[in-house]
Recover the amino acids of this structure.
């Protein structure tokens, strides 16, 4: 739905964020400090998407013309250039837990040789738009510097939401956090805005609208949670307890818990471990009317008690097997994936040995269930050295539901029975890991519709919980294994607790940063599924993804969002600052940066590659990245290895020796050569005899590069100054920034959407 480039990382991040979007997109981002380990694992271990139940075309309620009419009403005059024949109707479907019928409509058209595309999803009898995506045929005006400013885009989004839901009140929230590491310059500028629906001027947690506006002013994405506003009921806002009173109540019960936090840099594959303090994890909020504590199990008059840490097994257990082959792994997978249905056929697509992002040698089995004219598949991973399961998700219940073979299942296991099953599966399929993990310290998450229990067994080191590392086990209503995921990162040395601030000091810092946000939210344990409770949600600090550093007692941010350096320059200020905001240029301190300083060849190629392509150096992506070594002095451990090897692959750098001088300054003439090669015009530039350059310093241009310089100048990439090209002058950061942006525009003119 979103154009996020070709990177596997960006796709995976989007999936994760989609699953936890309700929490992350709310203004209570720092509520994540209170989120339990259980919640984190459930959202991140890749649980399957919702099952779509297809509806026969004969049962479709709305015609194509009705859908087109509703679409045009939502976007008056915007798509008048489309004819009815440009639209196509997709299938209708519903979800098992939401019987509202959904209809899909798409459109495509070619204008001046360029194709545009879009789709829209409607839900319910009123054909409420649930999602919308539009890919225009021309995005030139959306490239930096964009035609539409952020302020103008904000007004466009606000006006659109007002028209979309005239009778409902939506509140524009603060700018959403930039989750992605960088954006290449051939991608158009996008502005994202988040709106929360309100009732009695209080935001509703699960009623949101997300809108993206392109840099040319066009609305390109919309997503909103479908609502049953006609049947929803809400707590009386006049009956809530005083906010300050509740705040003091929370502070009085607050405790600080020491945790290990692993920060993983996917680009370098480095892992840094630090000690952090986190508040009581079992508390979700406080009911605003009764003052009861909200936990995973509902409301309680008693504050949730901290669970004592208990190892699954005190001593190491032997691995399940002493290494397995690809054929062994395939047999294990077939045992897990076997499905008892004549309507479904299992197909093993591939069995490969890979190294996962935790550095483990695993065997990856890609498989597909084929049924009717559809199919559904995913990947299973098995540890090559131990034969133990690393990742498994059962799709069989979903498949059965799609083909109508499995009825609604009531929960038939008690929590205790399901936990015993989960421990049994952990001992059977990951025995060699278990001495590093503890019994669940948080309540199980229960998918009540299917009766599935999800348990999280946290990793323990030095009697301290390791945040993010866990074994996640899902147990189905019939006691079968529904999901299994082991996240275990190899860490050589764990920080000592000798120099951490005291628990009391940490608790004081948490209390100082704590605030409460009044929110309407549904409580899963409530029998009335349409009722919204008023809840005070805890918030810490103002920075999203913030944490309390246990060694300094200070607040830090995992991503340092909103704290980018800002620099000044007489003629390239906006370009340089855009490079910084797009994470193309890494500047720690704007005061020390000199935009007129010379750029080395190594730094120049790094900036060019970061501007035009997505490069990931980490182990998890190494299967898709370069493994060759072109230059003796640039081995795979060199920080510029991927950038230089990618430049060689793209013929930007054409090796003429055994080494590459990363430290020597890049001259303007050399920069012109690189740019022309980026555009694929190397052959056109090589015949220097057909080019005439009349610069005052034309004699300083090397003969073999006359064509490159002539083209770079005529295309406006590198311009003359007082009729001097200055081919042997060292290029500066400012020149590089301005000229690369021009290059990005030329690239999109040549091939819209081009990105390496």
């Amino acid at each position: 739905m979103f154009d996020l480039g070709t990177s596997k990382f960006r796709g995976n991040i989007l999936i994760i964020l989609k699953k936890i979007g309700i929490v992350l997109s709310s203004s209570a981002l720092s509520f994540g400090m209170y989120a339990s380990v259980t919640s984190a694992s459930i959202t991140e271990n890749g649980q399957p998407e919702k099952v779509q139940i297809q509806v026969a075309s004969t049962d479709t309620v709305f015609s194509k013309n009705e859908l087109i009419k509703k679409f045009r009403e939502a976007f008056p005059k915007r798509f008048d250039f489309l004819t009815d024949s440009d639209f196509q109707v997709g299938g209708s479907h519903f979800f098992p837990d939401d019987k509202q019928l959904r209809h899909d409509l798409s459109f495509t058209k070619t204008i001046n040789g360029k194709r545009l595309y879009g789709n829209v999803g409607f839900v319910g009898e009123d054909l409420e738009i649930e999602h919308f995506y539009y890919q225009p045929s021309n995005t030139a005006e959306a490239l930096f510097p964009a035609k539409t400013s952020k302020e103008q885009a904000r007004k466009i989004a606000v006006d659109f939401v007002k028209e979309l839901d005239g009778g409902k009140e939506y509140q524009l929230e603060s700018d959403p956090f930039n989750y992605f590491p960088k954006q290449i310059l051939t991608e158009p500028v996008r502005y994202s805005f988040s709106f929360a629906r309100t009732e009695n001027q209080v935001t509703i947690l699960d009623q949101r609208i997300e809108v993206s506006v392109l840099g040319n002013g066009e609305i390109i994405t919309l997503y909103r949670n479908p609502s049953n506003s006609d049947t929803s009921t809400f707590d009386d806002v006049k009956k809530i307890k005083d906010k300050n009173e509740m705040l003091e109540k929370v502070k009085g019960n607050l405790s600080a818990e020491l945790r290990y936090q692993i920060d993983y840099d996917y680009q370098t594959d480095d892992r840094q471990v630090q000690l952090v303090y986190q508040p009581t994890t079992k508390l979700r909020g406080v009911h605003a009317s009764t003052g009861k504590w909200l936990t995973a199990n509902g409301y309680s008059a008693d504050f949730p008690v901290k669970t004592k840490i208990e190892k699954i097994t005190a001593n190491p257990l032997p691995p399940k097997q002493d290494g397995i082959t690809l054929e062994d792994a395939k047999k294990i997978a077939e045992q897990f994936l076997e499905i008892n249905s004549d309507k479904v056929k299992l197909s093993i697509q591939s069995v490969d040995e890979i190294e996962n992002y935790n550095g483990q040698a695993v065997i990856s089995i890609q498989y597909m269930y084929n049924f009717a004219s559809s199919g559904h598949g995913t990947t299973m991973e098995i540890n090559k050295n131990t034969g133990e399961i690393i990742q498994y998700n059962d799709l069989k219940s979903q498949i059965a539901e799609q083909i109508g073979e499995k009825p609604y299942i009531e929960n038939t296991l008690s929590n205790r029975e399901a936990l015993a099953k989960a421990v049994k599966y952990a001992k059977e399929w990951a025995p060699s890991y278990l001495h590093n993990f503890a019994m669940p310290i948080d309540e199980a998450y229960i998918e009540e519709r299917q009766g599935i229990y999800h348990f999280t067994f946290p990793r323990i080191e030095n009697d301290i919980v390791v945040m993010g590392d866990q074994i996640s086990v899902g147990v189905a209503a019939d006691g079968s294994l529904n999901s299994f995921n082991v996240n275990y990162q190899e860490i050589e040395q764990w920080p000592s607790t000798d120099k951490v601030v005291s628990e009391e000091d940490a608790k004081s810092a948490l209390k100082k940063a704590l605030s409460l946000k009044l929110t309407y939210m549904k409580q899963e344990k409530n029998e009335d599924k349409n009722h919204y409770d008023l809840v005070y949600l805890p918030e810490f600090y103002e920075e999203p993804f913030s944490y309390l550093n246990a060694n300094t007692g200070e607040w830090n941010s995992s991503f340092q969002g909103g704290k980018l350096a800002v620099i000044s320059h007489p003629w390239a200020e906006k370009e340089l600052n855009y490079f910084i905001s797009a994470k193309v240029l890494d500047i720690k301190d704007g005061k020390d940066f000199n935009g007129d300083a010379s750029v080395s060849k190594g730094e120049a190629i790094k900036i060019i590659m970061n501007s035009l392509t997505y490069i990931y150096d980490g182990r998890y992506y190494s299967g898709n990245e370069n493994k060759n070594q072109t230059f003796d002095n640039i081995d795979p451990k060199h920080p510029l290895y991927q950038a230089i090897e990618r430049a060689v692959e793209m013929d930007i750098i054409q090796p003429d020796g055994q080494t590459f001088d990363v430290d020597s300054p890049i001259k303007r003439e050399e920069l012109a050569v690189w740019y022309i090669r980026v555009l694929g015009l190397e052959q056109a530039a090589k015949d220097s005899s057909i080019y005439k350059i009349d610069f005052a310093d034309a004699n300083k241009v090397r003969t073999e590069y006359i064509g490159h310089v002539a083209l770079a100048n005529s295309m406006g990439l590198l311009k003359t100054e007082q009729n001097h090209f200055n081919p042997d002058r060292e290029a500066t950061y400012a020149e590089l920034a301005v000229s690369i942006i021009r290059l990005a525009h030329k690239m999109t003119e040549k091939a819209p959407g081009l990105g390496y």
Remarks:
- The first helix runs from residue 8 to 19.
- Confidence is low (pLDDT under 50) at residues 1-48, 617-626, 752-756.
